[in-house]
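Hi support team,

I'm filing this because I wasn't sure whether my run with beta-D-glucopyranose finished correctly. The job status page said complete, but I'd like someone to confirm that the output block is well-formed before I use it downstream. Pasting the exact inputs I used:
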Amino acid sequence: MGKLGVKLAVGCAVAACVVASVMVGRRVRRKRAWRRVMRVLEELEEGCATPVERLRQVVDAMSVEMHAGLVSEGGSKLKMLLTFVHNLPSGSEKGTYYALDLGGTNFRILRVQLGGQRSAIIGHYVDSRPIPQHLMTGTSEELFDFIALSLKDFVEMEENISEHSPSERRELGFTFSFPVKQTSSSSGILIKWTKGFVIEDMVGRDVSECLQQAISRKGLDMRVNALINDTVGTLAVGHYHDEDTVAAVILGTGTNACYLERADAIIKCQGLLTTSGDMVVNMEWGNFWSAHLPRTSYDMDLDADSPNPYDQGFEKMISGMYLGDIVRRVILRMSEELDVFGPESSKLHVPFILRTPLMATMHEDDTPDLREVAKILRDTLEFPEIPLNVRKLVVRVCDVVTCRAARLAAAGIVGILKKIGRDGSGGIASGKNEGASRSKMRRTVVAVEGGLFTNYTLFREYLNEAMTQILGEEIAPSVIIKVMEDGSGIGAALLAASHSTSSVDTIQIP
Ligand code: BGC
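And here is everything the job wrote out:
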């Protein structure tokens, strides 16, 4: 070998060493970065942990806060609002009633035919439309004009198909799923907006009046004779079908619960008299807060960036509006540590781009190579081809976030049961033989509505599992969670019907 040959050989060897060391260096860096990402995951898991002991603390805190909210106005973050609904539909309601359901992503109009016998909802027709984004942050007049116009279209369309007599005035139940201080069963003042709605001029105004005025502006002959929260509609339908229904929970874009309370337990309204002795209380549990809630830095950032910081803390950990965004924030944090997600996607910085239904699809992807996950990451976040181990990581993040949400919702439900003595501690017959008395625990039904619960199997499974863990194997079978499809809307029609037939106002507010 000549000199040149030697030089060449040495050069090649040096180049090979450089390439090898670059590759090794890259592998080492990648390994370190991967370890950092795993640390992010571990921290998330620790931060979101909901062992049953912690859930029991949440149960206790919920029932204590419920009590505090019933004792005095502002006594708790739970508003515990009076609904003026004290008699749930009896089953004798008859006729055709209309309902408007506003509160989530969609706005629905319903016509419900009641046959006058329990469980005789002869039929209902629903028209659902998305609420245009600009109306959620515009003026009240724009929003209500849109609603009234949609209602007019609906009525005109059905005039061709139904035998409604034009001389008959239509009766309307309005489900308005935001915190409202009711002034009667058909009127109330908006306290604040939630779920991304911000229409300043509406706060402090009577919601029914705004709707009634818009209806008149459109020349419709319709009377708003029930104003309800979606939880109350769901409870009404639940109770209509099954008298053991004592509470209702919404797990959808937002979250909330209501339940049947004894009027004399509503201490802040001393002397409140109702014929039934009860009153449905709208808890507005989305605003529940307790130091026992497992909160992470992602929750804090989400809250700080929201239009309503320090508000609706429970809702921001649980409901469909927020879960996808928590996952997005975790992925963003991971992508800062590691280039596994490819060049950092600018889409990942867009709030709410990863909606909860997409998150649920990723979480429930059962293809062996997690094809759906890859597709959503590509189509929504514009990530390039993502390796399988990273797809698995994303699924794990979805799992942690959803598991926490579902378990906290379960703790909230048991908190209500505890408050009304239906968690097995107060609602059982006393006696020496605990096993025998436990079997006498009263059947208790909780009506549930909302896409998060109905469309997201793993959320539902986690919730049911946590209910059993908290209540125990013996008590849990007595508590039945029942899905009420369209409960909030049908419930408004049912309550409109029962208000139109009950002639005397049987509530006395001191
Ligand atoms: C509202 C509640 C409503 C719940 C579910 C919350 O954001 O404050 O009034 O019941 O969402 O729709």
